[in-house]
Amino acid sequence: MKLISWNVNGLRAVVGKDGFAWLDEIEPDFLALQEIKVKQSDVPSEIYNLGFDEISTNSGERAGYSGVMSMSKFKTSSFKGQFFDDSEGRVLEHHFGDIVLFNIYFPNGQKDDERLEYKMNFYEAFLKYCDEILALNKHIIICGDVNTAHREIDLKNPKANSKTSGFLDIEREWIDKLLAHGFIDTFRHINGDVLDAYSWWSYRFNARAKNIGWRIDYFFISSGLKDKLKDAFILDQITGSDHCPVGIELEI
Questions:
Q1: Ranges assigned E (strand) in 81-120
Q2: Quick one: which H or E segment has residue 5?
Q3: Could you confirm whether 145 is annotated as catalytic?
Q4: Which CATH architecture has domain 2-250?
Q5: DSSP label at 42?
Q6: pTM of the prediction?
Q7: Pick the catalytic residue: 18, 85, 131, 145?
Q8: Whole-number Å distance between alpha carbons of 154 and 132
Q9: 145: helix, coil or strand?
Q10: Where is the Endonuclease/exonuclease/phosphatase domain (predicted)?
């Protein structure tokens, strides 16, 4: 099974750029999108012709902001965020078999201290919820834009960004905690400490052409799925957003 996650930073804009042409080659079984920025009623009709059997949408109450969409070639039971007030449209939770799959657009904390606090509260509430699911002997897959680079090798300029939300110690420590709770960073598990592997680049300063980026989009899996992980990758050749897709292959 091939699963892909992509922060599209505007679904209509990506559709307008023919930004899903790569699907014919990659052929994912599950595609998770973040920052779709549209209400369900305004989803472009082209989305329904991409070959997926199931499409779930969780749009934020605020127009043109946030929102997640999942497209699947297999049946799941899907829910909006269960562990907090999901009025911003940040979570889709999918159940199939003994697996719970999360498509999440985690909050960005750069605006001010209040949003950083919101982000950290979201992190903690989500990890507690994951612990409750694991206690039920379920496996978990987490994908999406986590809005934090974990280690210094996960961004081009770690020292210059050490006081910037997205690379603050408290944010990075939460990823440490997530891994300590039995989760695996699939990209690092497969690829080790490979350098210059990023999933987001600023639109400023020609950052993408210079590969001045951050790895803030992830697939985490619970330890019970480790032996089923066959590949983890970043599709940095795919354009259309300031993020690129990331993905995994699981033998399930």
A1: 91-96, 99-105
A2: strand 2-7
A3: yes
A4: 4-Layer Sandwich (3.60)
A5: G
A6: 0.98
A7: 145
A8: 29
A9: strand
A10: 4-243
